[in-house]
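Kindly review both lines to help learners:
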Amino acid sequence: MIRAEFSVSEQGIRGFTLSGHAGLAPAGSDVLCAAVSAMALLVANTLKEVFGARFDLTEEEDTGFLSLSLTEVPVGKEEAVRGVLRGFLLQLTDLREQYPANLSITTTEMKGR
């Protein structure tokens, strides 16, 4: 199962962690894993290259682990960055409806941020 956890503060989504494999097919052939991975990398590239956001990124391909945590968002880009992260959550939510046994999503409230 792919587990997606989103960290949320008063400013909106501040990051996410993905872990696990969907288990629909062998590694390298799993369409759900491929879709989630592609979306996560699209989000990371968009935040960095389009909006200039900075973040800590940890990726472990063998285990299916990916973690992104915002560290800096340029002034005037906050709403756009929130929109990209919210869009990712919405898209994963749609996928969860199709694959409820293979994808779980949780949100965690960040304290003091």
